[in-house]
Amino acid sequence: NKGYEFLSKGNVEEAITVFKLNVRSYPTSYNVYDSAAEGYMNKGENEKAIKYYKKSMQLNPGNTNGVDMLKKLGTTYDPQEFAVERQTKAERKQILQLAPDLSPEANVGLT
């Protein structure tokens, strides 16, 4: 991966740029978030690293590297942290099925 090539040469900014492009290109891949997190961790942007590792863990709770890196960053991953988000999306889907006129395409303008 070109991002890791940049990272190994100390070009952290370039590595992060590649990792972010991968996130945009493959938003459902846990690995791209894990890689981006590593880039941010190398840059010292630990809050961003935590955010990306948690997203990686959300997509793949079995990601042991994510677990280890979150511990290294002084935090943990709680799968329940995302349970509300999933529930909210499920509820929204159910509401839209019952009332399709409330979909964003209907341009209702709810605030």
What does this structure look like?
It is a single chain. This protein has helices spanning 2-8, 12-25, 30-43, 46-59, 64-72, 83-98. The N and C termini lie far apart (43 Å). It is an all-alpha fold. Helix 2 runs antiparallel to helix 3 (30-43) and helix 3 (30-43) packs antiparallel against helix 4. Mean pLDDT is 81; it is low at 99-111. The protein is globular and about 45 Å long.
* Biggest beta-sheet profile: none
Q: Per the principal axes of the C-alpha atoms, what is the gross shape?
A: globular
The amount of helix comes to 55-70%
List the uncertain runs.
99-111
The tally of helices reads 6
Q: Indicate the proportion of strand residues.
A: under 5%
* Backbone structural class: mainly alpha
Compute the separation of the termini in Å: 43 Å
Query: Could you spell the SSE succession in H and E letters?
Result: HHHHHH
Keywords:
111 residues
Ordered list of secondary-structure elements with their pairings:
Layout: H1 2-8, H2 12-25, H3 30-43, H4 46-59, H5 64-72, H6 83-98
Helix pairs in contact: 1-2, 2-3, 3-4, 4-5
Please give a quick description of this structure:
With 111 residues, this protein is an all-alpha fold.
